[in-house]
Structures are given as structure tokens and as C-alpha cells.
Amino acid sequence: MSTEQPETLPVPPTRLRTPFFMEYPLGLFNGRFSREMRDNGRLMGMVCRHCGFSMLPPQAVCSVCHGENFEDPQWVEMGPEATVAGFMSFNMPFIDTNDLSVQSSAYPVGVLMVDSPGRNAGFLWHYIGETDLSKVHNGMRVRAVFRPEAERKGLMTDILYWEPVRDPATTQGD
Ligand SMILES: [Zn+2]
């Protein structure tokens, strides 16, 4: 009987699945941002008290001037309307980072300049509620459509999409 080992041994495939769950605080500012969406169906951002920059979601430290906004932060309501600054369609499924589920969407996703009383718009990526891409264009106005209150979870998906706002200048007579 030979005791020689073959030079290569087959390695059986191994599959491991280790789910883990975490709970963590969103922080003072993002906590209020999420609660306002869930409970009041509105977008609350902050305007930097040093330079007037609009922050959506709100931030303690300004992205532009690096000024701190910990004390007496200037909360402002932003939206519910926005201007489309760019958009693209989804042609393949994608992973929802909230729960790692695979999602697909018939709606295009847009870069939205959300109305703000600050010196600039707040910026968000979100769905545009129009599946006919020939009707979507940069500069068009859209309005946030929130889920019914009982379905909201304090996530960006509390907004279903942003529906196009009819422009009175181009829809006269209909
Ligand atoms: Zn600033």
C-alpha cells in the first residue's frame, strides 16, 4: 500500500453565511433628518451659519467652509420641490444598501437641486417619477411624493419618487 500523497488534492466548495445585525445611532442631525421624513413627511436640512451653504442631509461641519454648526444649528425646511440637474435610467438591477436586497426600478434616477433658503440648493440623488425618458430633461421641476405615513421608516425610501410639476407656461389651454 502506497503512502504517497497525490500532488493535488481536490478542495470541496464551502459556503458560509453569517448574518449579523447592528443598531447604531444616526447622530443628532441625521436623527432629526430621518424623524422629520418619517413623522412629518418633510425634508429638513441645515444652512451653514458661517457661509450660508445648504446641507442636505444636515452636517455638523460644513463641506465648503469647514465651519462648525454644533451650537444653535440653522434648521430649514427644503423642498418639497426641486430642479433636475441630471439624470440616467437604470438598465440593470442594483443593490439597496439599506438591506442589501436586489432592486430594480423603472424610474430614472436624477441629481436633484432641492429648493432651499440657503445660498445654494440642497443636492440629492433620487427617482424621477416619469418612465418616458423623452419627457425628462435637465431644468425640469419636480416635487417629492412621500409614502403614506404608516409606511414610512425614516429612510430615503420614505420618498417614493419626485413627480414632474406641471409648468403653467407650457401647459396653457389643457
Ligand atoms: Zn459653511
Automatic annotation (TrEMBL):
Gene3D superfamilies noted in UniProt: 6.10.30.10
Per the record, a Pfam family? zf-ChsH2
Q: Which residues form the ChsH2 C-terminal OB-fold domain?
A: 75-147
ChsH2 rubredoxin-like zinc ribbon domain: from which residue to which, for each copy? 36-71
Enumerate the PANTHER family for this protein: BLR3430 PROTEIN (PTHR34075), DUF35 DOMAIN-CONTAINING PROTEIN (PTHR34075:SF4)
Protein name per UniProt: DUF35 domain-containing protein
**Species for this entry:** Cupriavidus necator (strain ATCC 17699 / DSM 428 / KCTC 22496 / NCIMB 10442 / H16 / Stanier 337)
